[in-house]
């Protein structure tokens, strides 16, 4: 019961901080002309979003940082979770800055992003392999057992981390989509961490829930601000860190099924076009396919949210 009270209190603190920061940062982003440029090849309904302030992920990152640093629960796990959040968020921020401020549409080059992501993912993987009571083991959902990956543990964790971060990044394409889905996923990790007695992770996850909930006030349709790569990569880092620091990396494709589907749709689309010259989807990532099928943006977001709730329930059954 005390854990639940602490989770709720942490959510409220992060939520309130985000609500306070929003009206401060959004006008600032507008004055600095940090506006989103919508791609011409995207859905035509998105053209009206041109100029909407981006890089709003800074708001969530600050809220999470303040919430976590003011808790009495600060320890190494929480610090490394914050390193993941801010490390990946920094890569996203640099990418956004190059695209939005320096007007170089491609942002960071692919190899530059990968190098940065590799460094942060490697640090997280090595830390967990050295400090976890399970060593190089990961928990296998549904089977109620662990599997020891041995020398493959660090490469596997690096892959999972980078895949998760980039999948969350791909999910950020509609108003409230990535923030809403991540709110649900983070709620799952907060509850599981509480069940496992992992205080640091349920604090970080609860702070993430509050930040996403508060950000939805400004990011729900019609969005007043976008999180940008700054936010989506920070959220991806948070989800990856929460799972990895509890040895639950294999649960991500289940509870983060939306992230997985978005990423998979891009892989399928690109592979199919290169091999056959034909596209499987009308457009990728997956949320754009449904838009071009005639679904309103809010319907796509709502369906993806509901799907995430269902996947989280499956995740609970897989672990408990």
Any overview of this molecule?
This protein has 320 residues and is mainly alpha-helical. It has one domain. Helices cover 69% and strands 2% of the residues. It has twelve helices and two strands; from the N terminus they run ααααββαααααααα. A two-stranded antiparallel ribbon has the order 1-2. A hairpin with a 4-residue loop joins strand 1 (137-140) and strand 2. Helix 2 runs antiparallel to helix 3 and helix 2 packs antiparallel against helix 7 (199-219). The chain is globular and about 50 Å long. It starts with a helix and ends with a helix. The model has no long low-confidence stretch (mean pLDDT 93).
Structural class: mainly alpha
Strand percentage lies at under 5%
Overall pLDDT confidence: 93
Order of helices and strands: HHHHEEHHHHHHHH
Described by the principal axes of the CA atoms, the overall outline is globular
End-to-end Cα distance: 18 Å
Radius of gyration over alpha carbons? 19 Å
The strands making up the biggest β-sheet line up spatially as 1-2
Domain count, please report it.
1
Residue ranges: pLDDT <50 for 5 or more in a row? none
Biggest β-sheet, characterized? 2 strands, antiparallel
- The number of helical elements comes to 12
Tally of DSSP β-strands? 2
Tell me the helix content: 55-70%
Pathway: Cell wall biogenesis; peptidoglycan biosynthesis
Pfam families: Glycos_transf_4, MraY_sig1
Keywords: Cell cycle, Cell division, Cell membrane, Cell shape, Cell wall biogenesis/degradation, Magnesium, Membrane, Metal-binding, Peptidoglycan synthesis, Transferase, Transmembrane, Transmembrane helix
Subcellular location: Cell membrane; Membrane
